[in-house]
Amino acid sequence: METTILEQVTAARDAVDFSAFTSHDVFCALEKQTLTPVDLAALLSPAAAPYLEPMAQRAKVLTATHFGNSVGLYTPLYIANFCVNHCVYCGFNCKNQIHRGKLTEEEIDHELSAIAKTGLKEILLLTGESKSQSNVAYIGRAVEIAKEYFTAIGIEVYPMDVEEYAYLHEKGADFVSVYQETYDQTRYQEVHLAGPKRNFAYRFNAQERALQGGMRGVCGGALLGLGDFRRDAYAGALHMSLLQKRYPHAEVSFSVPRLRPYKNNADNSPNDVHEPQLLQIMLALRIYMPFAGINISTRERAGFRDHVIGLCATKISAGVKTGVGGHEEEAKGDEQFQISDPRSVSDIHAMLLQRGLQPVYTDYLYGT
Ligand code: SF4
After folding, report:
1. Would you say the CB of residue 262 lies under 6 angstroms from ligand 1?
2. Residue identifier of the C-alpha nearest atom 5 of ligand 1
3. What structural domains does the chain harbor?
4. What is the helix (H) or strand (E) element at residue 272, kind and residue range?
5. Start-to-end CA span in the chain (Å)
6. Which residues have C-beta within 8 Å of that of residue 254, sequence separation ≥ 6?
7. Which SUPFAM superfamilies match (predicted)?
8. What pLDDT is stored for residue 257 in this prediction?
């Protein structure tokens, strides 16, 4: 019987021994054109930590080879923050006493119109995970409105069935982001105390269902700091690379979020994932999957974002708000997490030009 992607990833995550790698393994991995999962593990291991500079040089060449000097820009729009899950690390969790809200169709239109005026052509629509408050028809309507202003529409909502993804794709969505948070199934249950999100396997297979529903691309990865970050980064990379092998036409990308403080929890820290560790992970991902997109979010401070863009990251958010709406009108609901980089689209645009990079607002044309 064929082993599933989930089984392969789980087995590899459990089996990897990061302490076994040496500098020799790291340099062998850096010499290769195509890396194996063992090479990836070497680059993620403590043995690679002193070699961020040669890793950065390799990553920069690969990024330039596959992406030139282009950098994609986008922004998220939270249209609702109701959530039925109890994820201990997130401001939207159902036990957190925050102001909840949901945009009407008219408010969605106003927000999208305001965002479009900044020049952005790519939008990521988000909700908390509440199928009753933000049902598929509501998300579909938001996608339809977004289609009037944007050329690329991503969604970051609750995991869905194939037919629901197909419905949203028909409405105009073409990209789905789902984060597994941690690939450690025991830890997963410890940080997801209640709600449908406790179903690890259903979430794990969401990207595959999205692609089966016709989506052009998917984004995934772990929320670093919840579990053993090396194992989680390794598992996330294998998850996405196995999906890429099964769906060669798909655009597969990574995001590498770290824990951030949120309302009523100022101590939500990324634990032992400091910037050098985060950089090591991002470089290893680039070297392992040279053609995969890597996003850098406003969870990171401006200086770090500027450093990794063009080096290994290929997409950057700008003008970000993590409350409900808040781009045109006052936010209608509280934030999911505190951002570290409040710069506007024009600020990020100017930063990219100053670094010799090309801000790209649209990189995909649809047939009529
Ligand atoms: S991480 Fe997602 S599912 Fe969990 S509480 Fe936050 S919005 Fe809800």
Report:
1. no
2. 93
3. 5-360 (3.20.20.70)
4. none
5. 42
6. 219, 220, 221, 236, 237, 240, 285, 289, 292, 293, 294, 295
7. Radical SAM enzymes
8. 94
Q: Ligand 1: does its nearest atom lie under 6 Å from the Cβ of 197?
A: yes
pLDDT in tens, 39-49: 999 999 999 99
Residue showing tokens 């992970």? 281
80 close to ligand 1 (CB < 6 Angstrom):
no
77 CA → ligand 1 middle, Å: 15
**334 Cβ below 6 A of ligand 1:** no
In sequence order, the 6+-apart residues with CB closer than 8 A to the CB of 335 are 91, 262, 263, 321, 322, 323
Q: Show the tokens assigned to 237.
A: 């990379």
What is the total residue count of the chain? Answer: 368
- pLDDT of the residue at 163: 98
* Mean pLDDT estimate for the chain: 96
Is any atom of ligand 1 closer than 6 Å to the C-beta of 312?
Answer: no
Confirm if 240 and 4 have CB atoms less than 8 A apart: no
Residue 261, pLDDT score: 87
Q: How far apart are CA 4 and CA 8, in angstroms?
A: 6
Summarize pLDDT for 238-285 with one digit per residue, the tens.
Answer: 999 999 999 999 999 999 999 988 998 888 888 889 999 999 999 999
Residue 252 has φ and ψ, to the nearest 5°, of -110, 135
Summarize pLDDT for 225-250 with one digit per residue, the tens. Answer: 999 999 999 999 999 999 999 999 99
**How many angstroms is it from 177 CA to the middle of ligand 1?**
13
Query: If you measure from the C-alpha of residue 193 to the centroid of ligand 1, how many angstroms do you get, rounded to a whole number?
Result: 11
- 288: CA distance to ligand 1 center in Å? 29
